[in-house]
DNA sequence: GTTAATCCTACGTACAAACTAGGATTAAGC
DNA sequence: GCTTAATCCTAGTTTGTACGTAGGATTAAC
């Protein structure tokens, strides 16, 4: 139930790319991305490789090379980025929730995990990189952020 | 973003205790719990230790001993059980979301993680052990389960 | 040909996940 | 008090993941 450094870094790098996308300038180098968000350079390399293999970014090798989003920033969700580096969300013991098979008094537990995944998706699949850059989150997401309980620890 | 075996086992053991609570019989032994849900016996031992230290179950040592819920089954949420074994939910790089501090185009990323945690809570804190045993989940949770998209792997 | 960049593979270290082992401790029941 | 049945505690073990680092191969602009 925790978000890895790789996922966090991936989203942050993608946000920089999203912000630069509008300007239509040259591709952004890994050095620039690392500098902009203070990310460990070589680790970022691998994270960017995951994003590329997932088809979320295009890369240009050689001088004047770098990275660009492969899609419009409003067409890439935070969920897409996380899945690119972490794999499927809400795995239980390494299995997708729909693959689980409980017996006895636990039969309905599968439904709980399904609901957990669905609620994660409702936030992460509906929030695009453009939304995060602009600070204009979907209404139901912003509602969650504004609820005072949401900021309580515990 | 994944649920550990320990958390899964903890919930399943707690569900058995919840179901037996109504009967008011003797405490349930770890052997019985392991048998009922096919859980690795010695590993379960440690999981039960976490539940006890979290104050969710009471244990009785010695012959005729075993475990009982420390609270009513409708007063223990699935979130309580998960936190007892996994620690706080939705940690990012080991930090609670409210502790994060992003700069530049990532400033609003914190809100996304806060929303993620809030949406997890909306499911897991409102679903009690009694709810799961009876298969009567809170309305908004059941709604998530019934949405056809929720069962898509994607 | 030089320079600037991505790309690839391997390595390393530390920690967590998922157990297993063995005994110390407690308490019930004869 | 002894046996038995149970929790409790500490430590190991094995495997994988997290979080990086290192070094060079490859590509392309100029």
Account of the 3D structure:
- The structure is a homodimer of 154-residue chains.
- Chain A has helices spanning 5-21, 30-37, 41-53, 78-86, 109-124, 129-134, 139-146, and strands at residues 2-3, 57-60, 66-69, 91-92.
- The first copy, chain A, has a two-stranded antiparallel ribbon with strand order 2-3.
- Chain A has 154 residues and is mainly alpha-helical.
- Helix content of chain A is 50%, strand content 8%.
- Chain A is built from 7 helices and 4 strands.
- At the A-B interface, strand 1, helix 1, helix 4, strand 4 and helix 5 of A face strand 1, helix 1, helix 4, strand 4 and helix 5 of B.
- The structure holds a DNA duplex (30 and 30 nucleotides).
- Which chain pair shows the most residues in contact? A-B, 65 and 64 residues
Widest beta sheet: strand line-up of chain A? 2-3
Q: How would you spell out the order of helices and strands of chain A?
A: EHHHEEHEHHH
N- to C-terminal separation of chain A?
14 Å
Using only CA atoms, what is the Rg of chain A?
18 Å
User: Would you report the number of β strands of chain A?
Assistant: 4
Indicate the percent of residues in helices of chain A: 40-55%
Give me the oligomer status: homodimer
**Can you give the mean pLDDT of chain A?**
96
The assigned structural class of chain A equals mainly alpha
The global form of chain A is globular
Task: Give me the number of helical elements of chain A.
Answer: 7
Strand content of chain A: 5-15%
